[in-house]
Amino acid sequence: MTPFDYLAFPFFRHALVGVVLISICSAVIGTYVITRRLVAISGGITHACFGGLGLGYYLGLSPLAMAGVFAIGAGLGVEWMSARFRLRQDSAIAVIWSVGMALGVLFVFLTPGYVPELNSFLFGNILTITSADLTAFAAFAVIMGLFFILRFRTIVICAFDPDFATVAGLPVKFISYAMSILVALCIVLTIKLVGVMLLMSMFSLPILTAEIFYHRYSSIMTASVIISLLCCVSGLLLSTLADVPCSAIIVLIMAALFAACRLLRALTQQSR
Fold first, then answer.
1. 67-111, pLDDT tens digit by residue?
2. Predicted model pTM
3. Most CB atoms within 10 A, among 60, 80, 129, 162?
4. Element (H, E) at 165
5. CA–CA separation, 272 vs 264, rounded Å?
6. Domain that holds residue 16
7. What is the CATH number of the domain that holds 231?
8. pLDDT by residue (tens digit) across 162-173?
9. Spatial separation of the C-alpha atoms in residues 140 and 187, rounded to whole Å
10. Is 92 helix (H, G, I), strand (E, B) or coil?
11. pLDDT tens across 202-223, in order?
């Protein structure tokens, strides 16, 4: 049975559409994250989501929805603590990170019985995506796309030089908070694909690979989208052949591509 034979099954079609949407969104958001050097903040938000997952299980609510609430709260909380209390961002991240993980462990422990879906949130399971999930992914993609289209120039300036943007009178605070919300929501949606443990690779590896060859923000973002899309779709197809977790294959493909591009770049520079 070839991967294309799986297209006859609705769950695989959902997974394929989900992979496409998530890979594009994570590459666009990841470009901003890498440019602003916000990888640590994204890591803090990612692990704070675990608190929302645990609370969702404990209260009998949607774990993903509660993770979204925690993710947005974590993203805005880091920005607020840094501005309000002049707290270094890495210190604010440490607080958010540790509290989120601790709450997650506590609520999962207090939840009666076994939590069967916990592994899918920790390590991802793209095959569990439903039509409702796809609707949420598509809605987020539209909102994110419109925001970038309307504010692209401002986003680029704020990403590269927020101090200059402030002096120039640009709405830096608005962009920072809005992008924090978009980053948080994208993280929650991406959990379905690669899980909490492997999520940071989606926001970093395609962009780091694109940066080897490009330096303009728009070029990096475009190349990142293409790289992410190719890696994620090929990872999904290969995982069906090897019968292994899709998330692990995707991350390994991205890492291998990054290493190959770095080596190619180094060899090219040496030959000059």
1. 888 888 888 887 777 777 676 776 777 888 788 888 888 888 888
2. 0.86
3. 129
4. helix 162-167
5. 13
6. 3-271
7. 1.10.3470.10
8. 888 888 888 988
9. 11
10. helix
11. 889 999 999 999 989 999 999 9
